[in-house]
Amino acid sequence: MIDFELSPRIKATKNMVHMFADQAVRPVARQYDENEHEKPWDLLKMVQKVMGGGIAGALGSPEKKEKKEGEEPKEKKPKEANLAGAITVEEIFWGDAGIALAFPGPGLGGAAVQASGTPEQKEKFLARFFTDEPAWGAMAITEPEAGSDTANLKTSAVLDGDEWVLNGEKIFVTSGKSALEDSEGFVVVWATIDKKAGRAGIKPFIVEHGTSGMEITKIEDKMGIRCSDTVSISFMDCRIPKENILGSPEVVDKTKTEGFKKVMATFDATRPLVAAMAIGVGQAALDFLKEKLTEEGIELRYGINPHRMTSLERDVMQMEADLKAARLLTWRALWMLDNGLRNDLQSSMAKAKAGLAVTRITQKAVEVMGPLGYSRELLLEKWMRDSKINDIFEGTGQIQLLITARRLLGFSREQLK
Predict the structure, then answer these.
(1) For position 64, what pLDDT does the model report?
(2) DSSP 3-state assignment of 255?
(3) Is 283 in contact with 386 (CB distance < 8 Å)?
(4) 84 Cα distance to chain centroid
(5) Quick one: pLDDT band at residue 131, thresholds 50, 70, 90?
């Protein structure tokens, strides 16, 4: 029997986070949308303190508690850490996407360390997210001439004695300023140690804040998620310790890409979280629209023949169906991750569906509300602007559909591009 019911623990967390999003995040959403490069420091520090490490604390500590001698074994709990984390993300993004993305936490950089770092690297770099001081992690992949085509990365890393020397430029780095200037964070930089080896030569490197030779060259002005900083970073003879590489520095066989694939597995965990972000924004728009319809005395007639429905009823029910489908795909991908199952296909499906669904839902909500929905009097137009990024970052919707097609049809990257 398939059970889609959330556990009591997750339900309690969901209700608590929703209350926080409603009372603390939503009221200041417009303020920090209009003042793009400001940070709600009081709110961020409160989140860090209450959650014991910001978002990182909400998702669980990396420290493993060992059973003490003579201690009775505790009742076995269901594996649901990633699912619980996604539902936390959904509720916070229901409050506001920009502010939620600005919350302190390990981010993609921390996820990469967690996925492929050594025990020593995890202890050194992840512990900073579980203190009273806000800290951020970031990841730098995209380059001016290499977006979705990671094989075309030009940023290089050359081993010089006990140090790696990085040279190149990265763009659209989410939370880059927060990680490198506003906190004692770090950024995981993807660079090639052997251009001729293609993907097999691409390795991730941990670059800490304050590292010489690294400079933030631009802070983006964006259409949405304006409270979250997005930056460009240049690396000019940037030297980092030899041990700051994630995974093996060897390129044993240029025809194999095991190391690259291991780091790419980071996205199997984070893409469902991006889907959860989208679902939160879509739920906010749908809740608001239905509330306004109720205020106007417009009743949605469920269970009647579709041919008897009004155009408005069909639109709203299609929005609800798309959101539920995206949520169930997301929950499936996270359940598989919690249970140690390969979920690369399911992660891409969830990300593709959620990004497309929330874009349509927010646009339709604005359309239904007419001129008022397009005005800045309501948050609807903001949610429409915020929603589109979920169909772009961490792999565009088109790329996710391409990955899905390859997996389902059994085609390789070379066979289906």
Answers:
(1) 42
(2) coil
(3) no
(4) 15
(5) confident
> Reduced to 3 states, what is the DSSP secondary structure of residue 234?
strand
Q: pLDDT tens across 337-387, in order?
A: 999 999 999 999 999 999 999 999 999 999 999 999 999 999 999 999 999
Cβ atoms 345, 407 nearer than 8 A: yes
Pick from 197, 200, 189: nearest CA to 246: 189
| CB 336, CB 271: distance < 8 Å | no
Q: What is the location of CATH 2.40.110.10 in the chain? A: 137-254
Decide which of 3.40.30.10, 2.60.120.460, 2.40.110.10, 3.10.350.10 is the CATH code for 137-254.
Answer: 2.40.110.10
- Write b or e for each residue in 237-255: b if 16 or more Cβ atoms lie within 10 A of its Cβ, otherwise e: ebbbeeebbbbeeebeeee
Q: Which residues are catalytic?
A: 394
* Phi, psi values for residue 107, rounded to 5°: 60, -160
CA atoms of 100 and 95, how far apart (whole Å): 8
**Separation between Cα atoms, residue 151 and residue 89, nearest integer Å:** 31
- Enumerate the H helices of 296-343 as residue ranges: 311-338
| Tokens coding 396 | 């565009």
Mean pLDDT of the chain: 88
pLDDT digits (tens, 9 = 90+) for 235-276: 999 999 999 999 888 886 655 555 566 656 778 888 999 999
With CA atoms as reference, report the closest residue to 352 among 305, 317, 286, 400: 400
pTM for this predicted structure: 0.89
Predicted local confidence at residue 66, as pLDDT: 43
Class in CATH terms, 263-409: mainly alpha
The ranges of the chain annotated as CATH 1.20.140.10 are: 263-409
Give the pLDDT of residue 116: 86
